[in-house]
């Protein structure tokens, strides 16, 4: 996720206020002074207020929310359900004003929903992936469909949330009303993820016992460890962050983006123990997703069984879900009637909520959704 923390494309993006002959030092100094003054007096620069939303379904360990429309909803646009990953806060879809996919979707008149999870409680550690694939996401879909004359619903997920959307479409248990699936930065082939290689080596050497003992003892994969793992993916950018901030004090948008991403990182949550164990054994260790042999609750759940349109979005600079790890799904989704794969600027979070997402991945999403809004 932190490939967006101090991304090259963000730091090099031109500041406003320059001239054809180069930046104006005086104007830049004034902007830097204004930004510093705002930070001192207000304590922050980014507007991280969340788009208003209300719960429409309270489930066992999850909640479905409807975002309040900002314009009159367009009945010609099918509703969209957003699916966040485990571990990361759901406001990745609503990072800050001006860099919020939710804000952008609502402005088009599309009714937008999100399902959120309760990572706490005694039962949380016992929840497995099949709970999300067979129960939580389908229940959320039925709740949304029920509010729209039982129409089918668009699904869009990020990271592991994107895998949830694909696996829900692949599973035949719930017959959920899915219109299309979009997966942002969702790695299917973990052998293409350099960060995972050391863990796979340890797993192969120990037979998986080291990590199994750890998550069983703790009952979950702790939030602090989740945060550290993501930070390691861009350790160089973390080390150079103070220099980047000092040399870009006049770039308000960059400072706001860094601040908003820091807030997201500070709100990471633990992975439920059983779900983490399944990810570790079936995805990291055995790479079952890449071979389309994943089994949940004793039955195969194959991407080859997905029969709805699919959009896959990969981040060009993503080290958590590299392009090759995402692209592998294109070889498995053989039954999808409309399969699209695009590579857009940004890292793991940047491709979803970076400063260039609006004209790239958001535009891809809205074009894709519009192409399938007229399906029953």
Q: Give me the CATH architecture, please.
A: 3-Layer(aba) Sandwich
Query: Tell me about the biggest sheet?
Result: 8 strands, mixed
Radius of gyration: 21 Å
Label the structural class.
alpha/beta
Mean pLDDT: 81
Could you please say which CATH topology applies here?
Rossmann fold
Measured distance between first and last alpha carbons = 35 Å
CATH class, named Alpha Beta
Order of secondary-structure elements: HHEEEHEHEHEHHEHHHEHEEEHEHH
Helical residues, percent: 40-55%
Shape: globular
pLDDT under 50 segments (min length 5)? 1-20, 217-222
Name of the CATH homologous superfamily: Alpha/Beta hydrolase fold, catalytic domain
Strand order of the largest sheet: 1-2-4-3-5-6-11-12
Number of strands: 12
Total of domains: 1
Strand content: 5-15%
Total count of helical runs of at least 4 residues = 14
Give a description of the structure.
The chain is globular, with a radius of gyration of 21 Å. Helix 4 packs across helix 5 and helix 7 packs antiparallel against helix 11. The strands form three sheets. It has an eight-stranded mixed beta sheet, with helices on both faces. The protein is an alpha/beta fold and 376 residues long. The chain has 14 helices and twelve strands. It has a single domain, classed as Rossmann fold (3-Layer(aba) Sandwich).
């Amino acid at each position: 996720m932190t490939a967006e923390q101090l991304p090259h494309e963000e730091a090099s993006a031109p500041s406003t206020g320059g001239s054809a002959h180069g930046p104006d030092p005086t104007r830049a100094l004034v902007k830097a002074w204004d930004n510093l003054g705002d930070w001192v007096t207000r304590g922050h620069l980014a507007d991280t207020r969340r788009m208003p939303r209300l719960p429409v379904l309270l489930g066992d360990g999850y909640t479905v929310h409807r975002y309040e429309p900002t314009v009159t909803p367009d009945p010609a646009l099918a509703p969209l359900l957003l699916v966040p990953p485990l571990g990361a806060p759901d406001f990745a879809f609503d990072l800050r004003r001006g860099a919020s996919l939710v804000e952008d979707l609502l402005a088009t008149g599309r009714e937008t929903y999100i399902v959120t999870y309760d990572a706490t409680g005694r039962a949380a550690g016992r929840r497995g992936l099949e709970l999300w694939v067979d129960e939580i996401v389908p229940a959320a879909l039925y709740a949304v469909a029920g509010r729209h004359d039982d129409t089918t619903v668009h699904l869009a997920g990020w990271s592991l949330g994107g895998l949830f959307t694909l696996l829900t479409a692949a599973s035949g248990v719930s017959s959920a009303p899915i219109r299309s699936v979009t997966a942002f930065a969702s790695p299917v082939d973990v052998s293409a993820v350099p960060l995972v290689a050391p863990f796979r080596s340890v797993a192969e050497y120990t037979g998986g016992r080291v990590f199994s003992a750890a998550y069983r003892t703790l009952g979950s994969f702790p939030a602090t460890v989740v945060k550290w793992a993501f930070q390691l993916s861009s350790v160089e950018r973390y080390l150079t962050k103070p220099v980047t901030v000092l040399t870009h004090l006049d770039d308000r948008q960059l400072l706001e983006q860094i601040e908003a991403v820091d807030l997201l990182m500070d709100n990471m949550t633990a992975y439920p123990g059983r779900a983490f164990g399944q990810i570790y054994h079936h995805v990291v260790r055995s790479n079952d997703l890449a071979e389309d042999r994943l089994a949940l609750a004793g039955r195969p759940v194959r991407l080859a069984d997905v029969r709805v349109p699919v959009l896959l979005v990969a981040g060009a600079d993503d080290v958590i879900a590299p392009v090759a790890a995402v692209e592998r799904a294109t070889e498995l989704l053989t039954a999808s009637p409309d399969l699209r794969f695009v590579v857009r600027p940004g890292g793991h979070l940047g491709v979803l909520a970076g400063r260039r997402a609006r004209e790239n991945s958001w535009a891809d999403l809205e074009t894709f959704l519009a192409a399938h809004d007229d399906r029953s």
